[in-house]
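Batch manifest, entry 17 of 40.
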Amino acid sequence: MKEQLKKADLFGLLIIAAALVLRWLLAEWTVYQTVAVAAGALLVIISLVLKASEIRQGLGRRSTKFGIHSGVSVVALVGILGLLNYLGREHSKQVDLTEEKLYSLSDQSEQVVDQVKQDVVIKGFFQNGEDPRMRDILNLYTGRNKQIQAEFVDPEKHPEVAKQYDISSYGTLVLEMAGNKERIQKDRVVEEDITNALTKLIKGGKKTVYFIDGHGERGITDTGKEGYSVASERLRAESYDVKPLSLAREGKIPADATVVVMAGPASEPFPAEVDALNEYLKGGGSVLILVDPPDSASLKELARSWSIDVGDNMVIDRSLVSQLSGTNPVWALVQEYGPHKITEQFRNGYTLFPMARSVTPAKPAGEGITVETILSTSPDSWGETDIKSILPGKTVGMDKDKDVAGPVSLGVVATKDQGGEKKSRLVVIGDSDFASNAFFRQQLNGDLFANAISWLSHDESFISIRPKDPTNRDITMTESARRVLTLVSLIVFPGGILLAGVSVWASRRK
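Output type: structure tokens
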């Protein structure tokens, strides 16, 4: 009997293990499992007591000491790994090493998420109630702000929820805050879609941006290269209501105007239209004027009344950066920005201005008017006044007596307090091409335009750099190349490791 009890420790451990497995399978703990664990522990203790003398003798052996040392090392390693796993779970920190920061929120998204002060629930309706890619994206939002929660719903299993939110297709996201809802229904939802929807929830009511027409300006519905359809869609996505305005017909700026834009007028507006713009500014309005080089309209008189000088020239850029980028010398490449809210996050990024003219602060500035330069070209550029000399095949050089020496100012903002909460804001940029459909997505061009609108509409908290679409880095391989890769990965590498192991074993045998 004594000999059988000495071997009861193994049986006792098996009983304890069985109780724990049942706990894992049944997800509950009963009194029977408690009795089983107690009985198993009792058998182990009895066995160890009966084998005490044998254990003492065994502990004196060299092999036993080595085994104990190895066992303690293994237990210590497992303990350290367990502690690191616990600390990692409780204090998670994600580091995004991708070039385009694909696994972290953009500056714009972080600013928007930080402004969420009420509970936001994002419901994702997906087949089988799961979408790993979307979960990874939404985790970035929920991890940044605890007031944002994400839920995934299977419309098949929960048709009542799908009916409540009027879900007609998989992949739909619904964002809900304080009873207001924003719906995203696209084939492939990206970060920008979610951030724009959050922006609309935070802003609540829409602000209106009017684009003046009738003088050859860029069209907000024009989908051609020179149109502004992309720019207008960006504004709509950021919760602005975009409308055309015939100032000659209306005679005044509508009362609901938040920002008025005149983008690339070919001809000068009538004096009455200029007066209407000026009165709107004096009343605390906000205006964005984008002018092109001569012979396009300059709106010089209006700009000069707000301490801004529009030059009669075309900027020539001979900088090394411009040459390395392969751009045309009449395309101004800007990397120098003023410390203004519109451009303060641009750092060393580029904005591209095809065929621009100088726009500089007038000195001295008018009473109560503050003027700042926000865009400047490199010192290796100038404002060419003899525009007729800029022809293909001709060499253009700077005339120190006539031309504007670089760096050339291309963008200026003017502000003036009108008393109370009224504050006039005016932005003048010497090019309208930069925000056209052909160039809106180039470098920081789109961010410059959108940030200018945000600042003019007093939405400074939404000024940022928008998320970019990830670059397609798919590798295209021929069938033969695919076979070679398969051969190397499945046979050559594993076979080489196996041969190395056999070689080491054979050498030790000798």
